[in-house]
Amino acid sequence: MKRIAVFCGSSEGYNELFREAAYELGTILALKSIEVVYGGAKVGLMGAVADGALLHSGKVTGVIPYFLKTKEVAHEGLTELITVDSMHERKQVMSKLCDGVITLPGGWGTMDELFEMMTWSQLGLHTKPIGVLNVNGYYDALKVLCNNMVQDGFIAEPVNDSLLISESPDELLEMMFNYSPPPVAKWLTERTT
C-alpha cells in the first residue's frame, strides 16, 4: 500500500490518548513511506495525524470542501491540498487516492466516511482494506453492533469479517497488508434453512 486514507475527528475528544494515537499513526505511516490522505484540517485528530506524518518527512494530501476551509482551518503545511465542492466529493476523492483506509475515533462525519467505504466494499465497488484503530476501546460498541447486524441477518459474516479492527497500529497495518477481500456478499444474508 502506497497511500492510506485516514478518517478521524476534527476535534481531539476528551482523552489525550486519542490525539497521541493520531500523531503516532501519522508518524508510523511516514516512517513506512506510506502517504497519508485525510480531510485536510489542521485541527483535532486530523491535524495530529498530518503533523505526525509531516514532522517525520511523510507526504500528506488533504481533501477539504470549500465551505470547511475556514471552519476546520485548512492545514497550510501539506504536501498537497485538494479543495472540492461537497462532503460527498471529498469521500470520492479520498477513496480514489488511497489503497486502504484507517479510521480513528471521531463523530458523525467519521462514521459516515467509514460506513460509506464499508458499503462500497460490500457492493463490490472496491476491494481496499478498511481498518479501525480501536483506541482505548472507542470502537468496542461498534464491534457489538456489527455482530448484531450479522446475527439479525442484515449483513453477511464475510462482510463483517472484512472490517479489520485492532488496538495496535502496527498490527492493524499488518492485517491490512495481508487482507484478501471477501466475495461480493451483499445478498448472502438470506436464510438457507
What is the structure about, briefly put?
The chain has 193 residues and is α/β, with parallel strands linked by helices. It has one domain (3-137, 162-177): Rossmann fold (3-Layer(aba) Sandwich), CATH 3.40.50.
Sketch the topology as an H/E string, one letter per element.
Answer: EHEHEEHEHEHHEH
CATH architecture: 3-Layer(aba) Sandwich
For the record, the count of structural domains works out to: 1
What is the total tally of β strands?
A: 7
Structural class given helices, strands, pairing?
alpha/beta
Number of helices: 7
Provide the helix percentage: 40-55%
Characterize the overall form. globular
CATH topology: Rossmann fold
The percentage of residues in β strands lies in: 15-25%
Low-pLDDT stretches: none
| Gyration radius over CA | 16 Å
Taking the sheet with the most strands, its summary is: 7 strands, parallel
Biggest sheet, strands in spatial order?
Answer: 4-3-2-1-5-6-7
- Estimate the mean pLDDT confidence: 93
Task: Characterise this structure.
The chain is of the alpha/beta class and 193 residues long. The chain has one domain: 3-Layer(aba) Sandwich (Rossmann fold), CATH 3.40.50. Helices cover 41% and strands 17% of the residues. It contains 7 helices and 7 strands, in the order βαβαββαβαβααβα. It has helices at 16-31, 44-54, 87-97, 108-122, 140-151, 157-161, 169-177, and strands spanning 3-7, 35-38, 60-65, 80-84, 100-103, 130-133, 163-166. A 7-stranded parallel sheet has the order 4-3-2-1-5-6-7, sandwiched between helices. β5 (100-103), α4 and β6 form a beta-alpha-beta unit. α1 runs parallel beside α2. The longest helix has 16 residues, at 16-31. It is globular and about 45 Å long. The mean pLDDT is 93.
